Amino acid sequence: MHYPGYYDDRPEKMNHRVNEMNSNTFTAFDALRICLGKQVHFAAYRLPGDHPVTLVVQTNPEITPLGEIVDTLPGRGFLIAPFSTAGNHSYLIRPDIIIRGNTGQKDMALLESLPFRPPCSQTAKEPEDTTKPEYLRLISESISQIRIGAFEKVVLSRVKSLPGNYTLKLAAIFESLCEAYPNAFVYICHVNGQCWTGATPEPFMCARNGALNTVSLAGTMPFRPENMHIENWNRKEIKEQDYVTRHISGILADFEVTGYSMRGPYVAKAGNLAHLRTDFSFPARAVGNRLPLLIHALHPTPAICGMATKDALDFILQAEKHNREFYSGLLGPVGIDDLLQLFVNLRCLKVHGDRLVLFVGGGITADSVPEEEWEETEIKAETLLSVIQSIS
What we know:
Distance between the termini: 27 Å
CATH class of one domain: Alpha Beta
Order of helices and strands: HEHEEEEEEHHEHEEEEHEEHEHEEEEH
Number of strands: 19
CATH topology of one domain: Anthranilate synthase
CATH architecture of one domain: 4-Layer Sandwich
Helix content: 25-40%
Radius of gyration: 21 Å
Shape: globular
């Protein structure tokens, strides 16, 4: 049988495939290629640091949209939630099959036995590229709104496309992202006919050893040795990061979480970029069963939306001509190995049949310089473009 996106009919590739099947040992990347060809609901991810790739596969072809995360966390699986629920849905990919690191012939045969899932018809409008004049004009308009007191900060995103059909290269792109960005959360997922991949530097809410951890990550400069010293950062970047830190501190105060620890701000390297970061840690018992409410209150943070949040969000939904969809939303494993590991979906792209659509953005304050903000988004896009071009 031939599954689109997985098999390569060249004789030397077919022979390699037969040899693999006889070896009885396969990697998560081998299993990923089957999932891509079958177009089943799945997520493959690599947590920051020295972790193996985990592949989560849902065998049921039907998937039901989730409601907002307010009263309860969804069940065990891989969660992917949008930036805004206006016209968008969250999904949970159930872990009917979990493959971590290497696997054997039994798991591969099980994946091979899954039926091919025909692509579902997409009614969402495909995003158009954001031109430089459009983005500069939007930045200038945002600065004007900030100066009259509409909000203090807004995060503007843009779309950048890379033409071409990359279906057969997606597993290789994901593998290269894992190698290139060891300290990022790297993922690829296919859900409800959509395929996304990325390497995000921003944890959102992670549970570890009885503690909950979140991060204030904002402010961006190119990675250079001198930029690893916070005293070399300018007022605009420091102020931008401080908005996020104050926002998180305020929400923790609203939830009466006391005794939390803060580390930062400090400079954190993320690929070809450096960011300002502050880490928050507090006992999980201080939140208890209010964790879904806390997640709902924190998202979206000023790092991906703005401040004040509601005013900035209203401006974004009116001003940006594209739907962000899962860009700057939340994603990660929930309840797998009893972990909660949610990340903000940055440095990401959506796969279309004839192009890759990259989403990038930057924080705008009263001190922003439009040309510099455009250049920042170009540098952020290089996180993915450099890897894609090396594969191509």
